[in-house]
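4Fe-4S binding protein
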Amino acid sequence: MSPSLPASSPAEKLTLAMVATGLLALLLALADADPGRQQTWLYLALGLVSIGTLTWSWLRFGRHPAGVQQNNLWQRASTGRGSVAWVTGLVLTGFYVVLYWYSSDDGQGNFGPLNNLVHGLDSFSRWLRARPADQWFLYGTFYTLAILLMGTRALWKYRHSRYQLIRTGSVMFFQLGFAFIIPALLQFFQQPEFYFSYFWPLKYDYLFPGTAAALVHNGGLGVFMVFWGAVMSLLATPVLTYFYGKRWYCSWVCGCGGLAETAGDPYRQLADKSRAAWRWEVRIIYPVLGLIVAITAVLWVNFALNSSLLGEVGSGAAKWYGFAIGAVFSGVIGVGFYPILGPRVWCRFGCPMAAYLGLLQKHFSRFRISTNGGQCISCGNCSNVCEMGIDVKQYAQRGEPIIRASCVGCGMCSTACPRGVVNLENGPREGRYQASPLIHADSLRILS
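Predicted structure tokens:
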């Protein structure tokens, strides 16, 4: 007979009811035709969801002993691909579909099904950006709020780990400051919107000739933006990855990774760890990287030849890439499928930046995850928390270091290990594929 799920306390139920009431207020904001009430309902919804989530996080994690709790994850309807997970996935997927294809401005300030929510943020947008809201400002606000709220949850949950506290604080800082406030302030001062925490090939158009020419034409700040994007993509990224692995970006800076590590944390155990999934990962992610490299190169050659090589064909390929990869893969599938496939589907199978960083990490970096096979008790906690589908336990049992292109260095395998078997290291490149003598000594001592 399987153990019953632990019951939520009355206080937890009350906070969850507060969140549910906030979601109801969000529906009322969508349906109400009065502009004044739309804004009231929207801000009431955001307030109730925020207060409810923060209070629930403290009640659930802050009042209990610190540590990685993995009990009953596969029994819960929300985290074990049950009915709640499927409903959540459908709602998220539906939101992205509506956002990308049914919420564009019709030229008269109408944003389709999301019109009431967009205009509900008009006053906030005018205060921050000196212009009315649009569907992308709505999305950015929701995205940032999700990272901040669920990031606070992660801070309570992993408060015993200094590494997790700093890493979670980092993704919250970069999302709020570099991906939300700074781009908005640039617009406030009539400058081009620019995200200093996103680089090519993830933000693929930042090194396209059309984007670069438009920024340079804007003046000194635009020139700096082009310089920043080129240096961070082609120089700083290899150097930082050499010293720290891909974790410096994927787990500390990137907004996609930030959402996965915070809002996606309840679903990290869902990542497929089969060999078949790994094969598909290799078959998909590297062709995506090759595709955007080819498109970028073709666009620059075409630009150098005054569009005499391909005309508008290159631009058409770029638009197709933006639709198929930038919208469908990274948004609809990458986030909408969190509750079903885990939070790193986009990072694992489709992100060209992850592929670029992964190649550098595997072949040129000093980063590795060391394991001590002599101390491993095969509990499987490390594999269960790996959102990138790496079966960490198999490496730990054999005392082998983990050097995988897909590893984002989140450190959760080390945090979840009850015996300190798994450790993140930035050691010398020499010998990084071999286990340390201490590991072999421990293994021999136990076997004897």
